[in-house]
Amino acid sequence: MDAKSQICSIWLGSETGILKGVSISKKQAFNFCEMSCLSRDQEVCVMAWGDPHESEVLVGSVNGTVKTFSTDKGIFTATRECGDPSQGRFTGLAVTDSSLITCVESGLLKVWKEGSTDTVEVNVGNGICRMRQNPSQCHRVATGGKENPLKVWDLERPDKPIFTAKNVAHDWLDMRVPVWVRDIGFIPDSDKIVTCTGHHQVRVYDPSTSQRRPVMEAQFGEYPLTALSLPASQGAVVVGNTHGELAILDLRKGLVRGCLKGLAGAVRGLQCHPSLPLVASCGLDRFLRVHSLEDRSLQHKVYLKSRLNCVLLSSRELESSSPDVSGDVEEVKAEEDEVWDTMETVTEKTKKRAAQKGETTVIGVDGKKKRKLVKK
User: Fold this and answer.
1) Where are the alpha helices (DSSP H) in the chain?
2) What Cα–Cα distance (Å) separates residue 255 from each residue in 74, 187, 191, 292?
3) What is the pLDDT of residue 297?
4) What is the mean pLDDT of residues 143-151?
5) What DSSP assignment string belongs to 180-232?
6) What is the pLDDT of residue 356?
7) Is the pLDDT confidence value at 328 over 50?
8) Model-level pTM?
9) Three-class SS of residue 85?
10) 26 or 178: which leads in pLDDT
């Protein structure tokens, strides 16, 4: 099992509680879990790397536990109780200075210090949809949710947020615009933060200025946006919505650069590769897809049998050479066309039965098709 986990470059969490690893170079997928004790309360809702070397994957479940998976050994090495299921599921997971940061829907953000029972608790407000860590300043996190605006917190001074976004001006009917932050991203090499909302808006905030309202706002589609990710090349953001639409937006002009096609269900997980022009997405249609951000073509498509909630990309090359794996391997169906090829064609059967019964199709004066029995 350790050899299997070492060749995986993409990790995914499913509704059934299974941690899935995918090797793009070997065209294989693996399940890492105890099949005998699976239950719905083990559904994976968040994932994060446990260390900078990417040798550990932290998996947050609906039941409030955070499990540590070793990518070197291929097994779960630790389990920690980090939440009460009555307070909602995890909305964010991060690590800073050997401390674990968790946040749940009720707005309770906790910092779990290693080797100590003491925790730092911060109430960030109700209805939290997402908590994200600043990659360049690990002690800073951003939160947001339904009727809970974007806030930036310094965990070294968690008494109050260092930045709180202000809602946009009233609309043309002079009505208040509702707040619904669905995902957050920190723009590299700057203080700016980008968010996507449940009202199909993409907004950019700049906490370094005195302006608390967005410095840029754009809209995409007509449906709620569910996830975003920032590619390695600056100046753009990739967003996905509840109807399986993926788009690349220009953060300077607020325009859509292009759309990524092929999805058939709501997008739940989205992540761009740290150094390559690639983006991985997953969702309700049970497929992992990897698109190129240069020509927007579909590079890889893997069927994983379960509804997927989150995706985690390794920073190494996705198709690098890897050690060989022997043993029982789960073969991956890369195309759903094989399923349709094995199915019987219903229309042919209908025509044969109609011919045996002596039926024929007649087009009436009104243009409607009717079946007529012909005596032989």
Assistant:
1) 2-6, 337-341, 346-356
2) 43, 17, 22, 19
3) 94
4) 96
5) BEEEEEEPTTSS-EEEEETTSEEEEE-TTSS--S-SEEEE-SSS-EEEEE--S
6) 54
7) no
8) 0.82
9) helix
10) 178
**pLDDT tens readout for residues 180-230:** 999 999 999 899 999 999 999 999 999 999 999 999 999 999 999 999 999
**The residue type at 158:** P
| Distance in angstroms (rounded) separating the CA atoms of residues 167 and 131 | 19
Task: Report how far residue 70's alpha carbon sits from residue 84's, in angstroms, rounded to the nearest whole number.
Answer: 25
Beta carbons of 175 and 192 less than 8 angstroms apart = no
The set of residues, in sequence order, having a beta carbon less than 8 Å from that of 98 and lying 6+ positions away, is 113, 114
Q: How far apart are CA 101 and CA 119, in angstroms?
A: 10
Per-residue pLDDT tens digits for 55-110: 999 999 999 999 999 999 999 999 999 888 889 999 999 999 889 999 999 999 99
Q: Give the Cα separation of 322 and 310 in Å (integer).
A: 24
* Alpha-carbon span 193 to 74, nearest angstrom: 36
Query: Residues 298-322: what's their mean pLDDT?
Result: 85
User: At a CB cut-off of 8 Å and minimum separation 6, what does 35 contact?
Assistant: none
Beta strands at 56-61 and 44-49: parallel, antiparallel or unpaired: antiparallel
At 41 the pLDDT is 86
DSSP count for the chain of H helices, then E strands: 3, 31
Give the per-residue pLDDT at 346. Answer: 60
Phi first, then psi: what are they for 323, rounded to 5°? -65, 150
If you ran DSSP here, which 8-state letter would residue 177 be given? P
Counting beta carbons within 10 angstroms of the beta carbon of residue 35, is it exposed (0 to 12), middle (13 to 18) or buried (19 or more)? exposed
Q: Which residue do the tokens 């968010």 mark? A: 195
Instruction: Give CA–CA dist 102/182, Å, rounded.
Output: 17
Burial of residue 265 (CB within 10 Å: 0-12, 13-18, 19+) is: middle
**What is the DSSP secondary-structure string of 278-331?**
EEEEEETT-EEEEEETTT--EEEEEE-SS-EEEEEE-SS-TT-------S--EE
